[in-house]
Design a protein that fits this description.
Blueprint: H1 3-14, H2 21-24, H3 30-41, E1 50-54, H4 60-66, E2 73-78, H5 81-89, E3 95-98, E4 112-117, H6 128-142, E5 143-152, H7 168-179, E6 183-188, E7 195-202
Parallel strand pairs: 1-2, 1-4, 2-3, 4-5
Antiparallel strand pairs: 5-7, 6-7
């Protein structure tokens, strides 16, 4: 199976009609999901900004943003049709597209002010470090302002083999070496014991 096929199988197997969004997306509870959103957005001003949410799932990040900002232009993309169907059914103020951004990218350079991604690097695919860099190569091409995403922490007390865990110090070092000429890199820890957030800001 390809890596995208593995991701699709995991989330399709996880889907149970009538279950809450956080369960369908593989999060432990709604509180933890919202803590991740709080750190993803952080102090970023999203009023009147163009936003891309990669791995948007059922639209929960847009719901979070809707409560705090206005005038923004949101696009969410996900490879899973059932996720997009749920997001569309909510009639939220944004566009949702079922697509593989890393296979067929329809967007031009600097199309967005902010790119967010929550959870897409969590499953153990056998090449997570390479996938992260490949994804960031796409993100930094599309974002004219900020990139914010989360990763599972290698110090997590309840690690499972099906997930991949990163060392935040090594991630910060690798990204600074690769992108530091054009992007500042910061790491946020401490909001959960199994998760950290990475923020890249264009210099």
């Amino acid at each position: 199976m390809s890596h995208m096929s593995n991701i699709k199988k995991y989330y399709e197997d996880n889907y149970k009609e009538g279950y809450p969004d956080y369960y369908i997306q593989g999060w432990e509870n709604k509180t933890a999901q919202e803590l991740r959103f709080k750190e993803l957005v952080g102090q970023i001003d999203l009023n009147n900004k163009k936003i891309l949410d990669v791995g948007c799932g059922t639209g929960n990040l847009l719901e979070y943003i809707n409560e705090r900002f206005t005038g923004f232009d949101y696009t969410g993309v996900d490879i899973l049709p059932h996720m997009i169907d749920i997001a569309l059914s909510k009639k939220l103020n944004g566009k949702f597209i079922c697509m593989d951004l890393f296979k067929n990218n329809p967007f031009q350079s600097n199309s967005f002010d902010a790119i967010f991604s929550s959870g897409i690097f969590n499953l153990n695919l056998g090449n997570n470090k390479e996938f992260l860099i490949d994804a960031l190569d796409v993100f930094q091409e599309l974002s004219g302002g900020v990139i914010s995403f989360n990763l599972l922490w290698d110090k997590s007390p309840d690690r499972e083999d099906k997930y991949f865990y990163f060392d935040p110090d090594k991630v910060g070092q690798v990204l600074t070496e690769k992108y530091g000429m054009y992007w500042s890199v910061s790491i946020v820890k401490g909001y959960l014991n199994n998760d950290f957030t990475v923020l890249l800001k264009k210099k």
